[in-house]
Amino acid sequence: MPETISEAIGADHHAFDEYYMNIKNTEDEATKVRWRNQLTWLIARHAISEELTMYPAMEKYLGEKGVQLAKTDKEQHQGVKNHLNELQDMSPTEPRFEPLLDELMDILHHHIEHERTEDMPRLEKLLPREESEALARSFQNTKMISPTRSHPGAPTTYVLENLAALMAAPIDRFQDLLRDFPTQEDREMAEKNIKERQKSDKDAKGEGSAAKQ
């Protein structure tokens, strides 16, 4: 069955944690750099895609409440983008690297909790399954053409953000060719762990729903 928008975004949230732990759990500088680049690549694309797909849907379906929620989300995103912009080229040997990485994840987790408890339940309640699946496809497709680096000074209004993303993405992707990323084997192992995180999360939600009945 195709994924819903909550499932698509939730998968990225699990991936953030997986990539973060891969940075924390190695002492090898080159490995840290590869997973730093992978984390940057995902967070940057995820944030832009949410702002261009999910947040407009919230404003459409949730009205004024959706506008307020989207405004809060964008403000939270700005903190993420600012930290990511500082981290994305920082050497893991710098004393500031690990504290900055932890700060980034703290801000990110605060934002994720807001989406998990406020945005997603409200939006999914009003979206028919097929529309949620269509929104998930749009989210994934937009990630494919989004910038892969943090650009905190870019506009966040829908039309201007679209234009800025289209201009920045090709440059980011060209420069990615010069950067080191995890090997295919390492990415496959990470993907396996992410799917296990998703399954555990889904099982926990199922048990929680059963307990309420």
Structural class from helices and strands? mainly alpha
Shape, please?
A: globular
Summarize model confidence as the mean pLDDT. Answer: 94
Q: How many strand elements?
A: 0
Main beta-sheet strand count, sense and barrel state: none
In what range is the share of β-strand residues?
under 5%
- List SSEs in N-to-C order: HHHHHH
The number of helical segments is 6
Helix proportion: over 70%
Termini separation: 25 Å
Radius of gyration: 17 Å
**Spans where pLDDT lies below 50 across 5 or more residues:** 209-213
Describe the protein's architecture and organization.
The chain has helices at 5-24, 29-87, 97-126, 129-143, 158-176, 184-212. With 213 residues, it is mostly helical. Helix 2 runs antiparallel to helix 5. The longest helix has 59 residues, at 29-87.
Q: TL;DR?
A:
This protein has helices at residues 5-24, 29-87, 97-126, 129-143, 158-176, 184-212.
Q: What is the secondary structure topology, with strand pairs?
A:
Layout: H1 5-24, H2 29-87, H3 97-126, H4 129-143, H5 158-176, H6 184-212
